[in-house]
Amino acid sequence: MRLDYLTIFPEYLDALRLSLPGKAVDKGLLELHVHDLRTWTHDRHRTVDDTPYGGGAGMVLKPEPFGEALDELAVDGATVVVPTPAGRPFTQPLARELATRERLVFLCGRYEGIDQRVLDHVATRAELVEVSLGDYVLNGGEVAALAMTEAVVRLLPGFMGNAASLVEESHESGLLEHPVYTKPAAWRGHEVPPVLMSGNHGAIAAWRHDRALARTAERRPDLLPATAVASEWVVEPAVRADAGELWTLQRACWVTEAVVNDELRIPALHEELDDVVAGLGEWRTWVVRVDGRLVGSVRARTTATERGEVWEIGRLMVAPDLRGRGLGRVLLEHAEQAAPGSATAYRLVTGARSEANLRRYKRAGYRVVEVQDGPAGPAVLVKRISAR
Ligand code: JD8
To answer: Which structural domains are found in the chain, ordered by start?
Structure first.
């Protein structure tokens, strides 16, 4: 790939030679050419700007130097990238698109911008891409050109040592990055999550996926499909006809539990359809459907204990591909709100090594009161019901 830059601050782009692009040049993957726009001026002051037609503050970059530069650089058929706050958003898909081009020519503006006729002229002889780095104002196009160059060059075939790692990145997977850790295992009172040192790759992958989803839901819900946004979810009472889908969702969700607890002897995993149907008769059960698909469920019933009536909550299920977006919280809160006035506490169980679930329940105010010594525990969690 050949990259050309037109700018009145060529030294601003020296960084190109330092970082990634520099290595790509060494590898012969890239040709970098930085040009000072003043090269194509002919007056003693090497003037590149003038006052704006129509008045107003600031100066505008004149068209003539650009015209001569574009001629000398023979940009016909190339892709001319013009960073501008008025451009389309620069995104990973656009970076992938630009990485397929043979040649990119960056026009770096300054002052109030570049005379519009330059862009109109470019569009007659090349592919014009006016693009913005983000919704904030910079003083010129150079910083944006540097960032866009890095995002594009690292996608060039043969450039990233381990291309596979590209796939897992934010904005490639559609989710934000999961948290990362390295040695030491403890630092200033902060521990590395034990699951990451468990060697259980299934559990590690589930944890990372969970954290990535949670972060995305928290920080960038716009990245999540509409179906995954809380405002879209309607919790309804389950009916007999839901049994088949409930059984299927139950199997899918408890396979994940079996993985993270490294234990297959979990009751929910061994229930048959009839057990699910029977459960519908013994528990109040709710479901959430999105576009007709059953994506979540929870059930509850009262259980008498020596310490009074508790509201037993169970089978809290969220479709694995929709986890980490708050649906579990919506279902748990719905089940809690359905508790009879006579109940003194909520009680639920989860795998003793289901750290993601344990973390979520503790965040919801539950505390572990017992870890049974059966398969995968389970851990028993309770939350007192405050006066209603
Ligand atoms: C090119 C001149 C400065 C912009 C008057 C401040 C991109 N995401 C982005 N923010 N700002 C830019 C950008 C700013 C530029 C130029 C890109 C050329 N300026 C101007 C208009 C208001 N001054 C950008 N990509």
So the answer is: 2-163 (3.40.1280.10), 173-224 (1.10.1270.20), 235-384 (3.40.630.30)
